[in-house]
Structures are given as structure tokens and as C-alpha cells.
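Posting here for the record, re: uridine-5'-diphosphate-glucose.
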Amino acid sequence: MKISVIGTGYVGLVTGTCLAETGNEVLCIDINEEKVKQMQEGIVPIYEPHLDVLFERNIKAQRLKFSTSLEEGIEHGDIIFLALPTPEDEDGSADLSYVLGAAKDIGKLIKEYKVIVDKSTVPVGTADKVTEVISKETNVDFDVVSNPEFLREGFAVDDFLKPERIVIGSSSERATALMQKLYKPFVRSGNPIIVMDEKSAELTKYAANSFLATKITFMNEIANFCEKVGADVDMVRRGMGTDSRIGKRFLFPGIGYGGSCFPKDVKALHKSGKDSDYTFDILNSVISVNNTQKTILIPKIESYYNNDINGKIFAVWGLAFKPETDDIREAPSIYVMEKLLAGGAKLNVFDPEAMPNIKRKFGDTLNYANNMYDATKDVDALIICTEWSIFRTPDFNKLKKNMNSPVIFDGRNLYDIHEMKGEGFYYNSIGRVTVK
Ligand SMILES: NC(=O)c1ccc[n+]([C@@H]2O[C@H](COP(=O)([O-])OP(=O)(O)OC[C@H]3O[C@@H](n4cnc5c(N)ncnc54)[C@H](O)[C@@H]3O)[C@@H](O)[C@H]2O)c1
Ligand SMILES: O=c1ccn([C@@H]2O[C@H](COP(=O)(O)OP(=O)(O)O[C@H]3O[C@H](CO)[C@@H](O)[C@H](O)[C@H]3O)[C@@H](O)[C@H]2O)c(=O)[nH]1
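Prediction output follows.
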């Protein structure tokens, strides 16, 4: 099939590349000229594991192409995916200006039947709005489908190629049949393509993300309570997670959820509720607990230094919002570092992939280390914000030699507290006793 993808970010590029991998002719459109130029030169503009191999293969096979011309995109695709940003607006709602702007342009350019697929995360009713906007501009026949994306950054290629489910929201038999044909190669192991109405599809995405954010937040509260009563959240997590009704995943406590999705999507669903005269009490709490959780290490650090961190030097390991990505959107590390800088601390930072993005945001207010050990030279403490694998088994002796004092504040519970007892560190983590 001929496919166009409008918006070539984390979702659009993965979608385009994976659809090319199954033999489709894909044209990816982006407004960012520099990004398009890079991709035309064969450079993947984001860090996403395993994407480079597929990207290269499909460009070589001439199934994957890039352009800045929306006109070309509209002409090329029988199916046109919108993978555009839907960032948080000032009132917490999803900003639909990118999606509706593209819809208007599509309305002006469309010459024959097309299926317009909304892959962006959008509030209930957006498919109707997109239909209305396009209809105002043209009499040409088209269908709008809601097809929310559930991929995770860091696992995006695998998630797209082997999805646990595909949700298609459509009231058109013609569009549904095309979408089922397109996705058939991705569900050969029997995972379902669930067809439903547009509104339910739109809500499914917000419900899934908000549920997962709630699950994490619940565990963060249990962790905070563990610290009060001397219980160990790792044990509680294992004890709970073995109940298949609860499940083992997304029970890891830490310094809050971040990223480009959970924070904005929870807020957007909460705001949608408000707009429909419904108060999501649970989501209200999730938002508030997560706000506090992002900087939960700060009072611990301050208290260790008798409320004076002015002039202290800290190493910060892990800046991306989670491992295996260079994405720093709503990364808890940002909130932690801003508080530490405001308190007068100096920071030596390291992340395997997110350094360029952090440099763009923080400029010369941070010291950027070449590797994880360099970051710890002459520091008063090490602060861990993201659980990259390379941080999991450090050379503790080397760390002790590098650091002014052996102190670790771990926001992601990387180390076994029993093993840490023999390493000679002051080790404070989340929901577990402090090793002194
Ligand atoms: N990132 C994820 O893991 C993920 C997963 C599932 C769903 N989503 C949702 O998918 C949507 C896209 O997210 P993302 O993370 O890929 O965003 P992104 O910011 O990485 O990418 C968006 C791209 O769209 C481009 N763009 C902006 N305006 C444009 C226009 N008018 N025409 C063409 N291109 C334009 C930008 O230059 C950028 O490259 C959002 O709604 C998000 O909530 C994201
Ligand atoms: O047990 C856990 C699991 C995750 N997190 C945090 O939660 C955030 C989100 O993690 P994850 O869900 O792995 O990353 P995303 O790439 O943001 O993916 C989420 O958001 C995407 C965008 O909507 C969806 O498509 C995915 O299904 C959904 O998992 C990160 O800050 C993690 O550190 C925890 O704190 N504890």
C-alpha cells in the first residue's frame, strides 16, 4: 500500500519505518527541514534501539522516503497517518492545533478518497473534529480513523512490530478493511485487532496511560509509606506482583513518572472530565502525588546536609526520562537538577544518550562528564535519576576513590540494600531502609 506519515518524531518515524518493513511504500513528511535533510542522508534523528537497521534497509529498498512537502504526502498515501504532537496546553488539555491544522491543509489538498488516520493521542471527539475541519474544505470522499499508538520509547520497534493489540476506531467498513489489511502482518501470532467506534478508541489510549500512571503512583505512595514504617518496598512489590490480577509490571517505585506521554495524558483526561462535568478524583491525586514524587530526593539530600547544599558538588547519573531513550521531556532529572542548582549546588552530569538534549536545555549551568566515573570525581554525593543498565553494576571501589565522601541517593533502587551494607556507602533509596 501507499502510506504517508505526517510528523516524523518518535511515533511517526517508527510507524513509517515499520510499515515500510512490511512492504509498503512509505513517505514521511515533517515540517522540520533539518530533520528531513538528515533522514534523506540516511541519519536517524532520534535514539531508538534497533530502528537504525530497519531504517537503513528500507531506505535502500526505496520503500521509505522523506519530504517536507505536505502536498506530496497527501498525493502519495492512500492512508495518511497523523503522528503530530499533542502537547499539554496551558489549561492541561491536549493542544490540538497541530492535528487540526494538518486536517485543514489536507482538506485543501485532497483530490481523491483517502483514509486519514489519527495516531496522535487525542481527546474523545477529535475524529469528529478532524472530519468537520476537512469537510469544510472539500467535497472529496474521505474517512477518519482513530488508531492510537501504544509503543514505548526504548522498545518502540518491537512494540510496533509485535503489538499486544491494535485498536482501530472507525465507523467506515471501507476504512476498517484497509486498516486491517495494513496491520495483518503485525498480528500473525494471534494478537487482536480490536475494532470499535472512534470515541472509544480515543478514550482507550488515555485510559491505558492513566491506568499505568496510577499503578506507578500507587506504588510510589506505598514506597513512601514503607520508609515511614521500616518496610521494604522491593519485598512488598514482589509479594504483590505475583498475584496475576495485579501483575509484576509497572510496580517499580522511583522519582515519579515522566516522559512525553503519561504527564500530559493524565492531565488531558482529567481536563476532558472537567469539560464534561465529571471530576476524575483519582487522576487529581495521581497528578499531585507525582508532582511531589519527582523531587522526593530533595528533602532527603537537604536533610543529610543540614538544609545547606550551597557549594556542594553532586554527580547526577541518568538524565533521560527513562533508560534506552534520549528523550528528556518531563524527565524527573530536570526537576531534581533545577532544585539542586537553586540550592547553590554544582552538578557533574552524565547520561549515555541524553547529553545533547540536556545541554540544549541547561547550557553551561551544568558540568557535562565524558563518562559515568568522570562525573563522580571529587563530588560530595552521587544522585541517580534514571536506571540505565550501565549504572547497575558499577565499580564501587573506583567510586569511593573518586568521591569526596561515599554517599549515594538512588531514585531508582538500582542496588540491593543487603549488598550495599558491605560496600561502605551511605545509601538512600526509595521505599527502603537507608544503609549507613
Ligand atoms: N513518544 C511516544 O512514545 C508516544 C507513544 C504513543 C503515542 N504518542 C503520541 O503520538 C503523538 C506524537 O508524539 P511523538 O513523541 O512522536 O512527537 P514528536 O515531538 O517526537 O514528533 C512530532 C513530529 O511532528 C513534526 N511536526 C510538527 N508539526 C508538523 C506539521 N505541521 N507537519 C509535519 N510535521 C510536523 C515535528 O517536527 C516532529 O518531528 C503525540 O500525540 C503523542 O502523545 C507518543
Ligand atoms: O514501574 C514503573 C514503570 C515506569 N515508570 C516510569 O513511567 C514513565 C513512563 O515509562 P514507560 O511507560 O516505560 O515509557 P513511555 O515511552 O512514556 O510509554 C508510555 O507512554 C506511551 C505514550 O503514550 C505509550 O504508548 C506507552 O504504552 C506507555 O507505556 C517513565 O518515567 C518511567 O520511569 C516507573 O516509574 N515505574
